[in-house]
Amino acid sequence: VSYYLFNIVIWLGCVVLFYRLMFHFTGSREASFGAALFLLADFRTATLYFWFIERQNPMAIIFGLSAVILFIKFDKNERWNRFTNVWVIALLLLSALSKEYGLVFIGVLVLYALLFDFPNLKKAFVIAVIVSVIYLGMRFSYAGGSNLGFCAEIGYLDQASQICYQDIAFPQRVKFYIWN
Predict the structure, then answer these.
(1) Tens digits of per-residue pLDDT, 149-170?
(2) Burial (Cβ within 10 Å: 0-12, 13-18, ≥19) of residue 63
(3) Which whole-number Å values give the CA distances from 92 to 63, 78, 105, 132, 156, in the listed order?
(4) What does the DSSP assignment read for 143-159?
(5) Nearest CA among 90, 91, 66, 67 for reference residue 13
(6) What is the pTM (predicted TM-score) of this model?
């Protein structure tokens, strides 16, 4: 029971952070609450509550959203700059290490600075490069990168196949990733 309760607490944390981010952009509590409620009630998130493996997804989201919100909120205060940068880098790394799609928050940070906070674009870009270099270093030195063999059974409707990704070309891999 405590495992599932913890999953729910993590997901509620994601919803609260999503609310904060939406409020930053809209300035409307009602619109932000509606968007957060929609996220909370989305039936696709039901697996987050009972699948063991699904803890990675909300953790990637909560770390990534926290990094973006921290960058937005504390960037204006000079006293917090170094402290904030270290935390933003750490949170972005935790997001990427929780689940690979956590890397998207690096792009979100740069895109935010490009569209809404142009004076801090250089800072966002430097943070993105630092996180990317650290992540790639960890990925290829510690985890072995994609050099290790990986086989998986993928299926579509009533068809199933055993696929070894290292044996196929990159364009085919993309097709199988999407299919899976």
Answers:
(1) 666 666 666 667 776 766 777 6
(2) buried
(3) 7, 21, 7, 9, 33
(4) S-TT-S--EEEEEETTE
(5) 66
(6) 0.67
